[in-house]
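One-letter codes give the sequence; the fold follows as tokens. An example follows:
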Amino acid sequence: MEDNDIIIEFEDVEITNGEIPVITSLNLTIREGEFIYLTGKVGSGKTSIIRTITAENPITTGNARVGDFNLSNLKRRKIPYLRRKIGVVFQDFQLLMDRSVEDNLLFVLKSTGWKDRKLMEERINSVLEAVGVASKAHKMPHQLSGGEQQRVAIARALLNEPRLILADEPTGNLDGETAAGIMRLLFEINRTRKTAILMVTHNMNIVRDYPGRILVCADNECKEISTGYSLV
């Protein structure tokens, strides 16, 4: 693979939670089209890694870049531009409950610099169609099931065609059948769009059923394991 396929590259990075180190010497490379699980116990540093990728946690040790952005010397004014290149999907959906699905997505487009109303409508229709909820555009979030809300959240993550999606426990609030549907959707996005996906999960059944690279955080380290490793 070419170096321009690399989306994330961390070299000997110390990951902190506030000022407290939680991961030492993280070495991580994520390339276009990869699906990677980030696993480990509560407090092991998974969320801190996500926060570092989105420049919420500063880099004090080591070298790190996300796309064309060097996190080691990233200016504060550049952080919004970095975040526009990353789609984020949360466990609790984080939709704006006082506006429709369409207006939720419109809010994101406007806040990331889109101006042309016709192009915005076309983009919203495109991503809602891609995740299977095109008919829900004018519904309010409380009128949707949990699975539908998560599909809208994934549509929101796709709006600016990111090379990377960070999915933080995206199936955590869903029943097994609905979770399987969300996983199939994420894998389809990963396969057809070549979007890299880094997914935090505690659900080892999902890891077994939908294979990908596996990173385990434990004892102040985060390391890749082979698929033959026992996760129980």
Remarks:
- Confidence is low (pLDDT under 50) at residues 228-232.
- The two ends are 33 Å apart (CA to CA).
- The chain has seven helices and ten strands.
